[in-house]
Inverse folding.
């Protein structure tokens, strides 16, 4: 069984703020599969640092606006 990550994210909210961008559209822009985006959104997978920066750039925000780690 895969242990969920402690990293949370705001990807779903950011997608909807971007005119309801689909998971597939985000996946295409980042160069991953839709299933990878789903897993990241649901907290079942932590992206690499490079992918995290790519996701943040798609939305034009900082890394900490997309991903949060508890204190």
């Amino acid at each position: 069984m895969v242990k969920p990550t402690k990293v949370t994210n705001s990807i779903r909210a950011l997608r909807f703020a971007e005119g309801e961008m689909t998971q597939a559209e985000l996946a295409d822009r980042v160069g991953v599969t839709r299933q990878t985006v789903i897993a990241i959104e649901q907290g079942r997978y932590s992206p690499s640092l490079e992918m995290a920066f790519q996701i943040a750039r798609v939305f034009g925000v900082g890394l900490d606006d997309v991903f949060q780690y508890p204190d």
Q: What stands out?
A: DSSP finds five helices and two strands in the chain. The radius of gyration is 11 Å. The helical segments are 11-17, 23-30, 34-41, 49-59, 63-66. Residues 5 and 43 are 6 Å apart (CA to CA).
